[in-house]
Design brief:
The complex is a heterodimer of chains A (about 375) and B (about 475). Chain A is α+β, with helices and mostly antiparallel strands and about 375 residues long. Chain A has three domains: about 1-175, 2-Layer Sandwich (Uridine Diphospho-n-acetylenolpyruvylglucosamine Reductase, domain 3); about 180-260, Alpha-Beta Plaits (2-Layer Sandwich); about 265-350, Alpha-Beta Plaits. Chain A is built from 15 helices and 18 strands. A five-stranded antiparallel sheet of chain A has the order 4-5-9-7-8. Chain A starts with a strand and ends in a 12-residue tail after the last helix. Chain B has five domains: about 10-100, Uridine Diphospho-n-acetylenolpyruvylglucosamine Reductase, domain 2, CATH 3.30.43.10; about 110-225, Uridine Diphospho-n-acetylenolpyruvylglucosamine Reductase, domain 3, CATH 3.30.465.10; about 230-335, Alpha-Beta Plaits; about 345-430, 2-Layer Sandwich (Alpha-Beta Plaits); about 435-480, no CATH class. In chain B, helix 10 crosses helix 13 and helix 14 (about 355-370) runs antiparallel to helix 15 (about 400-415). With about 475 residues, chain B is of the alpha+beta class. In chain B, the strands form four sheets. In chain B, strands 15-12-14-13-17-18-16 form a seven-stranded antiparallel sheet, with helices on both faces. In chain B, strands 5-6-10-8-9 form a five-stranded antiparallel sheet. At the A-B interface, strand 8, helix 7, strand 10, helix 8 and helix 9 of A face strand 9, helix 8, helix 9, helix 11 and helix 17 of B.
Chain lengths: ~375, ~475
């Protein structure tokens, strides 16, 4: 059976009355983590923009509001969601309509993450229903707010396991007047990427394909700013290889949407996401990976994010090896890192933790929080563990 | 301001507690002489004072862990302390508590330019983090005005902001990972040098938890390449409404300055008398700063000036040199000192939606008349974070209480128009009892449930953040046990 509440109160009543697990979905475009068996609970009908103040850079909308509707509204004021939430439909082959609640619950972000932040950094306030059916609010709709604990961050990326979000306040930003993409090609691609993200030229995208030794770099801003920065960057990395500059807005938008959605790896049956300090990921981790298996690797966030695609016939072995590498002090030292299975067969998702297991003391804190927020264990139980 | 009645059992066990602490720390790291514990009796909210049972100054994560384990076993409340610059009473002791100061945890552990982060011990001051990397062209962005003195530990506890967060965000947006000691002595690593959490974002809830979830001993902080340059413009208006509209228009036009500072007439007059920065005598003054290369700066300033001219400013002064920039910033930077010359003052910290600015300033003016206390406004206008300064005379009986009542009215007004009680200073004891004006009991319960998980015995900074009545059952449970 599928519950489809049309209001926060109706949602609270459903959760209060629930006697077993609920499988919580926004648009259902991101089937990631341990599959949840139970009644489906969809938030898509709790929808609509509540408040939008372009001069204050803030927007309040209900969780079921489609991302496309929000983007269209922001566009009328020449503003945007600067964290450019990833659309998982491309790589997962799902259909449906991504919602704001889904973006928040999965902390879905894009290539601008290392420059402006993730969904978590743009979430100012939240309303949610916890596992006991209580309606809770936290944060607000102002940009600076340290009143009490920041449960907004805790809800971001909690994949529906702590509460079902019903309303979100977001910080939005102006769209830039212009953008340019520099494409670098050459053996010294790693050095080129490293130098660019360390420069003062405000690079807002830095992605690489190690197989064809290509790096894409994005700069955005006013016309004069963009041409100046593109010129400075070209001068800086030009001596290392070939550089070309694209300033067509449509072409650039399509290129970065493809990078955001990992379009390159859409045909692979297995896809993992790796978060690590760039030096560790492009260094020791990539080196160990090369010894392992036939895999495809792409970098985003200046090398701080990796996407691994594979066609191996032993997914379970590769999955466990990848998570071992991320936890290996010889690979990441004290910097840490994590590997998440984003795309894989149901049996693998059911038998192994898709999310990187935490150290025992940290895992105990997480399960302690779940026991408080969802005392009967009915909200997407087990999805993240 | 009420504080809980100290636990007599703890106070009478002082000798044993001090002896146990001495067994795990160097002799000079345990301070129990009443003449010396007095140094820890308050933070920057000096109206409230209470010497602690004793104070300890551990120099490693291991020592912090040993101290907390002992306090946990003995049932002793612990109040963590950074540099003691909290304006909210976040580090105010109780007579039955052990102060754990992080002053000796001051090392830089790793500087990593390729991955753009530094790992430091958290007793290090905010400004000295930038100091460790600026020769190589990097900086740490959050810049609370106490940055010369305040510790990273306190910045993390309060999720500190600063003048430049319109562009760079606050502490939580610049914090990658921490090593933290839980109340029972367990050491945990949250986050690391990478972006975003692999599981639940515990780091996100630890940042801003006011020292109630654990003591952070090490932190990985994002550092950014320094911009090529920065220059401000000063714009004066004859009305607050017009200044507010100008700010909104600038933001809507897509210009994102690094800072938009606002001062009203009482503050302008006070700073002129004090610092002689040459500000015009007007109702509202904006200082707007932009960053980038020289050409980028000029381009952005031209856009800002064009918008400002449409609002008919009484004066508009664009800095053309480092010297002129310094003069424009001089008054703003001495504003608090200047107000202090006139009288004692209390600095508030509410945030409001920017669109409510004219209404809120008018209502503050009315409250000022009603209470008979002067008030000046100086704040970060781009993000709506207000700092009304209420003037009072600490030597005049009843004046402090009157000032606190007026402050509470202003903060309730912030909540009423859709804002919040505190934008960057934290709740501490100062705004603790106003939390019920912003949150329903169920909202506060959800927050306290987090503390239940991290600190089940409610020993860490227990009398802060939550109204005493709301937290009483939890705090007293521990005492009975």
């Amino acid at each position: 059976m599928t519950h489809r509440p049309t209001s926060e109160q109706e949602l609270a009543d459903i959760i209060t009355a629930a006697r077993g697990p609920l499988s919580i979905k926004g648009g259902g475009t991101r089937p990631i983590g341990r599959p949840v068996s139970g009644e489906a609970l969809e938030t898509g009908a709790i929808s609509g923009v509540v408040d939008y103040e372009p001069g204050a850079l803030t927007l309040v909308a209900r969780a079921g509001t489609p991302v496309s509707e929000i983007e269209a509204l922001l566009d009328t004021e020449n503003q945007r969601l600067a964290f450019e939430p990833m659309d998982h439909r491309t790589v997962l082959g799902t259909t449906g309509n991504p919602t704001l609640g889904g973006v928040a619950a999965t902390n879905a972000s894009g290539p601008r993450r290392f420059s402006v932040g993730a969904a978590r950094d743009f979430m100012l306030g939240v309303r949610y229903v916890d596992g006991a059916g209580q309606i809770v609010k936290n944060g607000g709709r102002v940009m600076k707010n340290v009143t009490g604990y920041d449960l907004v961050k805790l809800m971001a990326g909690s994949w529906g396991t702590l509460g079902v979000m019903t309303e979100l306040s977001l910080k939005v930003l102006p769209k830039p007047e212009a953008s340019a993409t520099l494409t670098f090609q050459g053996d010294q691609w790693q050095d080129a990427m490293k130098r660019a993200v360390k420069s003062p030229y405000d690079v807002t995208g830095a992605a690489a394909n190690p197989h064809d030794r290509t790096v894409h770099l994005r700069v955005e801003g006013f016309d004069a700013q963009v041409s100046y920065r593109a010129r400075q960057l070209t001068e800086m990395i030009g001596p290392l290889g070939d550089v070309s500059v694209e300033t067509d807005a449509k072409k650039n938008a399509a290129l970065w949407a493809g990078i955001r959605d990992v379009a390159d790896l859409r045909d692979r049956p297995l896809v993992w996401r790796v978060a690590m300090a760039a030096s560790d990921l492009t260094g020791a981790f990539a080196h160990a990976l090369a010894q392992l298996a036939e895999v495809d690797l792409r970098y985003d966030l200046g090398g701080g994010l990796g996407w691994i695609g594979s066609t191996t016939d032993d997914p379970a072995a590769l999955h466990s090896k990848l998570q071992q590498l991320a936890a290996d002090p010889a690979i990441t030292g004290r910097h840490g890192g994590h590997v998440t299975l984003v795309k894989g067969p149901m049996d693998l998702r059911g038998s192994a933790p898709s999310f990187q297991p935490s150290a025992p003391a940290v895992a105990a804190l997480m399960s302690g929080l779940r026991a408080k927020f969802d005392p009967s264990g009915i909200l997407n139980p087990g999805l993240m563990t | 301001m009420d504080m809980p009645i100290p636990n007599a059992a703890v106070i009478s066990a002082k000798a044993k507690i001090v002896r146990r602490l001495r067994s795990v720390l160097p002799a000079d790291a345990v301070i129990d002489d009443p003449a010396e514990t007095r140094a820890y009796e308050c933070d920057a909210l000096t109206a409230y004072r209470c010497p602690p049972l004793c104070a300890v100054l551990p120099a490693s994560t291991k020592e912090v862990s040993d101290v907390l384990r002992i306090c946990h076993e003995e049932g002793v409340p612990v109040v963590p302390r950074g540099s003691g610059t909290s304006l909210a009473g976040g580090a105010l002791p109780t007579a039955d508590c052990v102060i754990v100061g992080v002053a000796r945890l001051n090392q830089v552990l790793e500087v990593n330019y390729d991955d753009r982060f530094v790992r430091v011990q958290t007793g290090r001051t905010n400004l000295s983090v930038t100091g460790a990397v600026e020769a190589d062209g990097f900086f740490y962005a959050p810049d609370p005005s106490s940055q010369l003195a305040c510790a990273i530990a306190g910045n993390i506890a309060m999720n500190s902001g600063g003048a430049h967060c319109l562009k760079y965000g606050v502490t939580t947006n610049n914090l990658l990972g921490v090593t933290m000691v839980l109340m029972d002595g367990t050491v945990v690593d949250l986050g690391g040098a990478h972006l975003d959490a692999g599981g639940l974002d515990l780091l996100g809830v630890v940042c801003g938890s006011e020292g109630q979830l654990g003591i952070v001993t090490e932190a990985s902080l994002r550092i950014l390449p320094k911009p090529e340059g920065a220059r401000p413009v000063l714009i004066a208006f004859e009305s607050n409404e017009v200044a507010g509209a100008c700010v909104s228009d600038i933001i809507r036009a897509g210009v994102l300055p690094v800072a938009i500072e606002f001062m009203d007439r009482p503050v302008i007059r006070a700073t002129e008398a004090f610092a002689k920065a040459g500000y015009p005598d007007c109702e509202a003054l904006l200082i707007i700063e932009v960053e980038g290369s020289e050409a980028e700066i000029q381009d952005q300033l031209d856009r800002i000036i064009a918008i400002a001219r449409r609002h008919d400013p009484v004066e508009l002064r664009e800095s053309k040199s480092a010297d002129e920039s310094a003069r424009i910033w001089l008054g703003r930077k001495s504003a608090f000192g200047a107000m202090g010359q006139i009288n004692d003052y209390m600095c508030l910290d509410g945030t409001i939606p920017v669109s409510q600015l004219p209404l809120v300033l008018r209502r503050i003016g009315e409250l000022s008349k009603d209470y008979g206390l002067g008030v000046g406004n100086v704040f970060h206008a781009g993000d709506g974070n207000m700092h009304p300064l209420i003037l009072f005379d600490a030597n005049k009986p009843g004046d402090l209480e009157k000032c606190e009542a007026m402050g509470a009215d202003i903060l309730r007004l912030c909540v009423e128009v859709g804002g919040c009680l505190t934008g960057e200073h934290g709740v501490g004891i100062e705004k603790r009892d106003l939390m019920v004006d912003q949150f329903a009991p169920v909202d506060l319960d959800a927050q306290m449930a987090v503390k239940d998980v991290f600190d089940p015995k409610w020993l860490l900074n227990p009398a802060k953040v939550f109204p005493l009545a709301a937290s009483e059952a939890r705090r007293m449970d521990t005492r009975k046990a």
